[in-house]
Amino acid sequence: MNNIKYYLDKVGAIFDAEQFIAEPRELYAPIEYTLRLGGKRIRPTMLLMANALFGGDEQQVRNAALGIETFHNFTLLHDDLMDRSPLRRGQPTVYTKWDENTAILSGDTMFALAWRYFLRQSTPKLQVILQCFNETAIEVCEGQQKDMNFERMGLANVSIDNYMDMIRQKTAVLLAGALKIGALYAGAPADEVERLYAFGIHLGLAFQMQDDLLDGYGDTAVFGKKTGQDIRDNKISFLPLTALKYANEEQRKELLALFAAKDNMDEEEKVRRVLALYQAMNLKNAIEKAIADEFETARKELDGIHADEPRKTPLRELMETLNGRKK
Amino acid sequence: MNNIKYYLDKVGAIFDAEQFIAEPRELYAPIEYTLRLGGKRIRPTMLLMANALFGGDEQQVRNAALGIETFHNFTLLHDDLMDRSPLRRGQPTVYTKWDENTAILSGDTMFALAWRYFLRQSTPKLQVILQCFNETAIEVCEGQQKDMNFERMGLANVSIDNYMDMIRQKTAVLLAGALKIGALYAGAPADEVERLYAFGIHLGLAFQMQDDLLDGYGDTAVFGKKTGQDIRDNKISFLPLTALKYANEEQRKELLALFAAKDNMDEEEKVRRVLALYQAMNLKNAIEKAIADEFETARKELDGIHADEPRKTPLRELMETLNGRKK
């Protein structure tokens, strides 16, 4: 049976074989730049694994793998512009390396290029597969809007339920959608597809919650990002929202004040004080428990899928890798 | 036989019956605003006409009509942001009424909503139809990039061929694509589809050249835009490019200098001097001749299509309306 490395290498080879540059170069150079930056490429990897889980033909999902990753990179490109993030994968983002208009238009074109990949492949299930892709895309946009809304609402007015709904749309549905599309190409039965989708949702939620945790507690040298960036940015994440659940009145007041602080406070002092509050509440343990629960729910969904156990191995490996990730 | 008014009313009714608002409202309110502004809605009208030309079922193209117009409005929304245009159809553009991020994300969502409409309709031709739509979308993006490139290149370095290639992609392929999609739904033979597409391309070129002409010579009260806005913006259009063809050395120098002028020149003085140059070259006649030629080529393509003559009437009416348009 193939292992996780097989699929990661496969996805790497698919991207290496692809030509992204075209005319006009001003439009396509940023697209090639973005798609060549690499990243973990988890979504196409999962799509291939899901296809193999139900005995699908690997050649048939090559284009879908390209499509889902191209779409994901389009969302990153526009998100980085909207969030004014200067770096992505340690490199300058498109809007900083080029300009805003280039980021807008190259992003739009990448969305269409994702469609071009999906439309290359004939399959009797085309309409259902494309609907799955497109409804996922719409949910990702809705999730991004909700994330932007949180900033305006402020920490005190966002609930953990609001937050879980947001990360479900912004992050989890695309992982789940990649699995679903892979399974649909393989002709998997509807109820197995839905179980795999549920696995992807819980995996995605756990993945994002872990991302939030690493922001506060990750090893900068390993994680690749500066610890506490979310705190500096007053970014509402699973950490402060969970902290509010455990805070006493005094701690609550302090946390809300720190997350409302603008440029009038020393950033490192703010990070130090927020982390001290978290420490006092033993927040790390509570977060790790919540993440473990989410992974456990995902594992149960995977257990429940009717497929040869050895075929599930790569997805189990992937889950354990994500579970243990330090970056 | 149905006339042009029938199709315009039909498209109006299709849009009136549609619900565009959804949650989160911050995302969908600008989408509803944009789609309710109306405009000429030529593309869905042409799609319906093309479908009827080959005896198609009007109900089958309802969603495609919504899809093509939603896509068109997405491109306007992002173009207005990139071009920093404050007004569209006499109303504030989305990025001015809301903000830049809203314009980016609502635009992205509109692109996906266009796909949702197209994906609602089952048809054995789905893959071909969606490929036509998507390749059209990519060409529109390429055309917009070329248009932005022109600004950097400067008037002296853009040829009329460059310009025709740009407006073919930015404007004409979407009109032609709308016709092609309508015809494909009706099951029209491939060579007739291509003839109809060619008709759409020449109609689209004529349409854009006329837009350029109206900028310089339109009646502000009728056209709805201030005369000479392209001149104020140093916008490279068919007018200055054609003028360069007729200019003597002295006129050429003056025109290039005027189109390179930045804020150091009184805008109305600039408009006056450019229009005086055009006048001296009798430019209006030359442009009108070029537009008439383009309409004539379009007419011949339409003549060559094998379909009942009465069924061509709405498209002929539309062409004559566009030909005689003052706005």
Quick overview:
The structure is a homodimer of 327-residue chains. Chain A is mainly α and 327 residues long.
Question: Any descriptors?
Answer:
homodimer, 327 residues, mainly alpha, Farnesyl Diphosphate Synthase, globular
Question: Describe it for me?
Answer:
The structure is a homodimer of 327-residue chains. The first copy, chain A, is mainly α and 327 residues long. The first copy, chain A, has a single domain (4-323), classed as Farnesyl Diphosphate Synthase (Orthogonal Bundle). The first copy, chain A, contains 16 helices and two strands. The first copy, chain A, has helices at 4-16, 25-36, 42-53, 62-83, 94-97, 100-120, 126-153, 160-185, 190-217, 220-223, 229-232, 238-246, 249-260, 267-280, 283-303, 309-323, and strands spanning 87-88, 91-92. A two-stranded antiparallel sheet of chain A has the order 1-2. In chain A, helix 9 (190-217) packs antiparallel against helix 15 (283-303). The longest helix of chain A is centred in the middle third of the chain and has 28 residues, at 126-153. Chain A is globular, with a radius of gyration of 20 Å. Chain A starts with a helix and ends with a helix. The mean pLDDT of chain A is 95. Chains A and B meet through helix 4, helix 6 and helix 7 of A and helix 4, helix 6 and helix 7 of B.
Count of helical segments of chain A? 16
CATH topology of chain A: Farnesyl Diphosphate Synthase
Uncertain regions of chain A: pLDDT < 50 for 5+ in a row? none
CATH class of chain A equals Mainly Alpha
Query: Helical proportion of chain A?
Result: over 70%
Radius of gyration of chain A: 20 Å
Order of helices and strands of chain A: HHHHEEHHHHHHHHHHHH
Structural class of chain A: mainly alpha
Oligomer: homodimer
Mean pLDDT of chain A: 95
Largest interface: A-B, 36 and 36 residues
Shape of chain A: globular
Q: What is the domain tally of chain A? A: 1
Main sheet properties of chain A: 2 strands, antiparallel
Number of strands of chain A: 2
Query: CATH H level of chain A: which superfamily?
Result: Farnesyl Diphosphate Synthase
What proportion of the residues of chain A form beta strands (DSSP E)? Answer: under 5%
Strand order within the widest beta sheet of chain A? 1-2
CATH architecture of chain A: Orthogonal Bundle
Distance between the termini of chain A: 27 Å
